Every structure is written in C-alpha cells, then in structure tokens.
Amino acid sequence: MAPDPDDEPGDRASRRAVLLRLDPSVHEALGRWAADDLRSLNAHIELLLREALRKAGRLPKDARPVRGPGRPARKE
User: Least C-beta-crowded within 10 Å: which of 4, 41, 47, 56?
Assistant: First the structure.
C-alpha cells in the first residue's frame, strides 16, 4: 500500500487503512471539494467524517486533531 502523504513520519503505524467504495460522481465531487480546500481526498474524507462524529456527539475525546489545509510547514 502506498504511504499517505498526510501522515507525519512515524505516524503510519497508528493509522488504519480503509477500503471505501464510492459512486464515481461522488468521488469526483469530493475530489474537487478537497482540491478547493488544498487537501488530499483522503484528508478531506477524514475531515468530513470527524465533523459528522462531532455533530453527533460521538467524536472520541482522544482523537488527535486534524492537520490544517495546505502543505505542512518545512522542518528546518
């Protein structure tokens, strides 16, 4: 499986991969939305799922925050 560009180094071991089957038009719409927000499709889907969990009062208290949009800051 290819590494997720949204993962921080050393972060991959604590993340889970999920196969998600989507209607092609939904996939394209999500891809455009993600691009508009400067996110990968994977990061955008996670953001939407977390938002739904938060609204439903089901977001775990120990869930790590989502990284903001755009490229990560350079480490000097």
Answer: 56
Supply 32's token pair: 């455009």
Q: Does residue 2 contact residue 12 with C-beta atoms inside 8 Å?
A: no
DSSP the chain: -PPPTTSPTT-GGG---------HHHHHHHHHHHHHTT--HHHHHHHHHHHHHHHTT---TTPPPPPPSSPPPPP-
Q: Is the pTM of this model over 0.85?
A: no
Strands (E), 18-72: none
pLDDT at residue 55 greater than cutoff 60: yes
* CA–CA separation, 73 and 20 (whole Å): 29
